[in-house]
Write a structure and sequence with these properties.
Number of strands: 14
Low-confidence stretches: none
Largest sheet: 4 strands, antiparallel
Number of domains: 2
Distance between the termini: 51 Å
Order of helices and strands: EEEHEEEEHHEEEHEEEEHHHHH
Strand content: 25-35%
Length: 343
């Protein structure tokens, strides 16, 4: 039995009685103001129980058949209901309305979202520029790749842009999309970070979320194992979610698993290598003691063996980590890892 599909469209416009534009959508007999970042997530296939409009959460699935979009809504006014949409109409109107919205924000024009700061749905110019980059990238992709040939695999990059200072700036990139935040010393458990990376290595169902905290809120790097036909190359579907203090669009993409783990692992260890100025010891304690502690918590033979394709034999035994005792030993160890693991 065929399912009747809605042809409702998203539009960036002024609604009756409003003095500024927003993205509007017809839902359950009334017009609702759609949250831009949630709509952006939906286009990337990542809207799961997310606040979609005021008082409404949504699960949105852009179906593999190329014809349908399936939506489940959890509505404060009407409860739970589902709607099927024409996929081309849904995607095209969502993309066009988001593009128009971003252009208006970049031009400095007021939108209705500016008046709803308490809902935390306002989008700043930098976030709008980042969203446009993501929309342009999304237009070049096969939505559900089944083979390596269909998939756009991009390089993952992670690194600190300054020496350790309590709140240390880092940048994470997938292709041409990037996000910048800070790593706080007091709110991160480096042993936990290592364990989360290790848990991501061994395939479904061991998907993993790696959390790097700024103050008391993390950015989250979600790694989902993505199966491909006729391919032994391990691939992650990656979603990087900003922390509360840096609102903006998530970063999505496909990355070769070992390359991503190598970049993230070496990038994190790299925070221990840079020297700090003389004032550091007065504020935080001895840097040499602290960086040896961090390095020993992060270092993992399990991760290194994975990157190097060293499969453990059933009756074999491998050390889980090494103990590094001096700064000179740590620097030599890191240089060796860069030579062996960099991809």
């Amino acid at each position: 039995m065929s399912v009747k599909k809605s042809t409702s469209t998203f539009r960036f416009r002024k609604a009756k009685g409003e003095d500024a534009p927003a993205i509007w959508f017809r839902l359950h007999g009334r017009d609702v103001m759609v949250y831009p970042l949630a709509l952006y997530d939906a286009l990337w296939g990542h809207c799961r129980n997310e606040r979609f409009c005021y008082g409404i959460k949504a699960d949105i699935l852009i179906c593999r058949d190329g014809k349908s979009t399936y939506c489940e809504f959890f509505d404060d006014d009407f409860g739970y209901y589902t709607i099927w949409y024409m996929q081309d109409t849904f995607i095209d109107s969502a993309t066009r309305s988001l593009t128009d919205f971003c252009a208006a924000v970049i031009r400095g024009e007021s939108t209705l979202y500016n008046k709803h700061e308490a809902l935390e749905v306002d989008v700043k110019p930098q976030a709008a520029e980042d969203m446009l980059v993501g929309l342009q990238e999304l237009a070049t992709r096969v939505r559900y790749p089944r083979s390596v040939e269909d998939m756009k695999i991009e390089r993952f990059a992670f690194g600190f842009t300054e020496p350790y200072n309590g709140d240390t700036t880092f940048v994470v990139r997938i292709g041409n999309r990037k996000f910048e935040s800070y790593l706080s010393d007091w709110s991160n458990d480096f042993n936990r970070i290592r364990l989360d990376i290790e848990s991501a290595l061994w395939g479904y169902p061991n998907n993993s979320s790696i959390r790097l905290h700024y103050e008391d809120d993390p950015i989250t790097i979600e790694l989902i194992h993505y199966g491909l036909n006729n391919s032994d190359i391990p691939v992650f579907a990656v979603a990087v979610s900003p922390d509360y203090f840096h609102p903006g669009p998530k970063i999505f993409g496909f990355c070769e698993a070992r390359q991503l783990i190598s970049a993230l692992y070496l990038g994190l260890l790299g925070i221990c290598i840079a020297e700090v100025d003389d004032s550091f010891d007065e504020c935080y304690g001895k840097w040499d003691d602290l960086r040896l502690e961090i390095y020993n918590h992060l270092q993992s033979c399990v991760i290194e063996d994975y990157i190097k394709h060293n499969e453990e034999e059933e009756d074999g035994f491998r050390l889980r980590n090494r103990v590094i005792n001096t700064v000179a030993e740590m620097k030599a160890d890191y240089q060796r890892l860069q030579e062996e693991l960099a991809m």
